[in-house]
Amino acid sequence: MHTDLVAALDIGGTKIAGALVDGHGRIQARTQRATPARQDGETVMQAVEQVLGDLAASPLWGRASVLGIGSAGPVDTSAGTVSPVNVPGWRGFPLVERVRAATGGLPVELIGDGVAITAAEHWQGAARGHDNALCMVVSTGVGGGLVLGGRLHPGPTGNAGHIGHISVDLDGEPCPCGARGCVEGLASGPNIARRALADGWLPGPDGDTSAAAVADAARRGDPVAVASFERAAQALAAGIAATATLVEIDIAVIGGGVGKAGDVLFAPLRKALADYATLSFVQRLTVVPAQMGTDAGLVGAAAAALALRPDTTAAGV
Fold first, then answer.
1. 44 — phi, psi (to 5°)?
2. Number of domains forming the structure of the chain
3. Nearest CA to 117 among 106, 107, 108, 127?
4. Who has the most CB within 10 Å: 17, 138, 164, 276?
5. Taking a C-beta distance cutoff of 8 angstroms, is the pair 10, 290 a contact?
6. Full residue range of the structural domain in which residue 22 is found
7. What confidence tens digit (pLDDT) does each residue in 63-105 have?
8. The domain that contains 196 carries what CATH number?
9. Per-residue DSSP letters for 243-299?
């Protein structure tokens, strides 16, 4: 058993979390700060440094041999930079270099948050034991990552598996990314809610217009809410089937807020998948909910750091 710990950062538009993770994916110390997402880049970096300072104050810090970062993207792992859409102060920000400096030269591995969650689900979650998997985060956006041939497959810049921007509707709405009819435009939480409202769904007396509220309405049988989730499920099925046909995955794991909708999403998704994943080699494809929950980003950043550094080992990565 490899006793060293891995330091991990999970950086998003809302919070910056840090942890020390052991070789079995268990968190031994944790801390977090709010992300000053509307501030300048240096202010955001100060919050990262505060999280690192908290971790460094732990008596366990000396056992950390490597640090993994999972960040909202886009990221560029080849350059060590991040440009998170929801943190405008960071554009091409040299995060790897800055974190290495702040930790006194600890080796740093950077990945996108979709790849981090994939690493976590493959190491300790729903994709464990599968050599070829797609893991997705369906929430405000739609991201993902791939495991191919038993190994994490982040791609040259760390963005492989970004299923949210596969086009599944040739004549669909323009996407902010510049393309048209992307999975994200049909299946993200805000777009599920937007479509339900546009088609005549009426929120309850509390005025909640979130995708979770649409899911509740769909559970109660509201036909417009049901239809919006069916449309999202169809888009996800088309994207998942395209991915499976291209690289022969046998499981797709869905996490994020929309993934928590349960049967409202998974029943129409499995039905639609049968319509799209039709070739013999993709017919055994299964779709399951994610298991790792809110710690997935931290555990995944640690898993990826272990998986991507040849000089470190951990049980089952």
1. -65, -40
2. 2
3. 127
4. 138
5. no
6. 5-117+294-308
7. 999 999 999 988 999 999 999 988 999 999 999 999 999 999 9
8. 3.30.420.40
9. HHHHH--SEEEEESTGGGGTHHHHHHHHHHHHHH--SGGGTT-EEEE---GGGHHHH
